[in-house]
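ok, trying the design again with the full structure, not the truncated one.
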């Protein structure tokens, strides 16, 4: 099959979050199974050009219709760690992608409406006819709309669209200017509730809703998150739309890149190891303590790695830190805050705990340190308010670091409580879960994990190995996507 991914990110060249990891990892997983994959991306001025090999002109004079005229674009092609990527660069006073950032501009809706239009124009003009166009998140929600309302009448009638939603919180909202800019034009038609009309604002168009309505298949990134989006407030106002489109809506669990996250070959950690020589993990724990100036002692080490924002459950994270210290454990945090208030709170905690030999808070993000923390920690806490899939717990399994997670989204699909899970036999359980959002719930799970570490070290080691035996690579998700592609191609 010939598949084209259209996205606003692809790690490591363009990465703001998990979306970039998925676009790269899935593309690689599909190629491993024998399919041809190309990726279309915006050419941002601030992307990591050092991760692109052989960047060259692919289509020099692409004219993209826009309002009453057209914007001249250049399309470049290069290889990002083996993946074929096309980068679209518009030449206009709007400077859509020369902003020094990926997101966060007041005209983001217009920027990515243009990118969606340009991606389709490039496919059409260059005579690329993929079997499936795979779009991601609100930024490309207009691709299936324009494909089926415009481009199918210009030689693209056989292309099918798979649309993946990674985060329902950001949906892309626009007005009539979007219609006139893209050439869709017909206001009453598109503002209709059955098409792009926002479910709660009669004067707004919703990009993500358009993607759901017009695509041939819609999915989010874990089975449980799909249920949450359909039946709870996690759908952020789109639950009714998902209900109307439920026959084509599903959840497919993300994978992780086992080339990047592999303690047997990880160049960022001083001691490589596997489940067969787990003793080496202890040397990484010693190295982590040396790097962060923590006390070398016989204590469990609990970690948190991730964004410091409300989605990640920062109120529980704060409590987890002090609960760990009260139980004689060490705690390491690595994360960057998305809001000034949260940033100030954790900087305050950092200064307050600066001389504590059992605690280290690293505010910011450091890829090398993240690998060492995964390798050195005994447990990792993931107290998320909501979590579409979650990569932290899956990486934790790879590195023999037991996850303690809240039972939401993809965390439910990957972590099976050692004491209480009813779906797996004891020899297949791999971590600890709690479900409520209060401190007592968090303590119940952390307490059970710590108790096992302190009192039954062999049982804890067995739990570690059971987690390491799980396969959360891209192999299984790639097969699931291939089934969907095949289905919509022949539908």
């Amino acid at each position: 099959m010939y598949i084209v991914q259209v996205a606003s990110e692809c790690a490591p060249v363009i990465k703001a979050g998990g979306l970039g990891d998925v676009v790269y990892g899935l593309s690689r997983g599909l190629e491993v199974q024998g399919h041809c994959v190309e990726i279309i991306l915006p050419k941002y001025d601030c992307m990591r050009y050092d991760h692109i090999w052989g960047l060259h002109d692919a289509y020099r004079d692409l004219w993209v219709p826009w309002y009453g005229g057209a914007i001249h674009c250049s399309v470049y092609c290069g290889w990002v760690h083996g993946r074929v990527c096309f980068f679209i660069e518009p030449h206009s006073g709007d400077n859509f992608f020369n902003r020094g950032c990926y997101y966060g501009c007041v005209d983001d809706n217009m920027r990515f409406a243009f990118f969606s239009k340009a991606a389709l124009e490039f496919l059409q003009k260059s005579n690329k006819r993929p079997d499936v166009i795979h779009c991601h998140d609100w930024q490309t929600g207009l691709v299936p709309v324009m494909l089926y309302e415009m481009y199918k009448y210009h030689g693209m009638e056989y292309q099918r669209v798979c649309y993946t939603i990674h985060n329902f919180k950001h949906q892309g909202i626009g007005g009539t200017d979007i219609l006139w800019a893209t050439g869709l034009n017909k206001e009453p038609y598109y503002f209709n509730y059955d098409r792009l009309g926002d479910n709660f604002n009669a004067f707004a168009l919703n990009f993500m809703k358009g993607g759901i309505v017009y695509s041939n298949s819609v999915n989010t990134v874990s089975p449980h998150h799909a249920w949450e989006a359909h039946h709870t407030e996690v759908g952020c106002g789109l639950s009714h739309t998902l209900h109307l489109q439920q026959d084509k809506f599903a959840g497919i669990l993300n994978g992780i890149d086992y080339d990047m996250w592999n303690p047997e070959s990880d160049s960022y950690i001083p001691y490589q190891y596997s489940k067969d020589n787990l003793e080496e993990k202890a040397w990484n724990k010693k190295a982590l303590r040396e790097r962060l100036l923590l006390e070398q002692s016989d204590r469990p080490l609990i970690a948190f790695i991730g964004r410091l924002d409300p989605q990640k459950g920062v109120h529980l994270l704060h409590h987890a830190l002090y609960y760990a210290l009260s139980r004689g454990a060490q705690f390491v945090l690595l994360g960057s805050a998305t809001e000034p208030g949260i940033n100030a709170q954790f900087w305050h905690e950092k200064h307050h705990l600066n001389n504590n030999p059992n605690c280290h808070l690293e505010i910011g993000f450091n890829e090398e340190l993240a690998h060492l923390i995964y390798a050195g920690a005994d447990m990792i806490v993931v107290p998320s308010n909501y979590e579409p899939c979650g990569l932290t717990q899956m990486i934790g399994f790879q590195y023999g670091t037991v996850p303690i997670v809240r039972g939401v989204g993809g965390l439910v699909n990957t972590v099976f409580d050692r004491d209480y899970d009813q779906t797996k036999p004891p020899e297949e359980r791999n971590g600890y879960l709690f479900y409520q959002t209060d401190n007592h719930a968090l303590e119940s799970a952390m307490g059970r994990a710590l108790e096992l570490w302190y009192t039954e070290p062999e049982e804890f080691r067995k739990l570690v190995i059971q987690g390491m035996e799980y396969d959360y690579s891209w192999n299984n998700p790639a097969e699931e996507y291939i089934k969907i592609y095949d289905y919509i191609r022949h539908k």
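Keeping the full-length input from now on. The chain has a mean pLDDT of 96.
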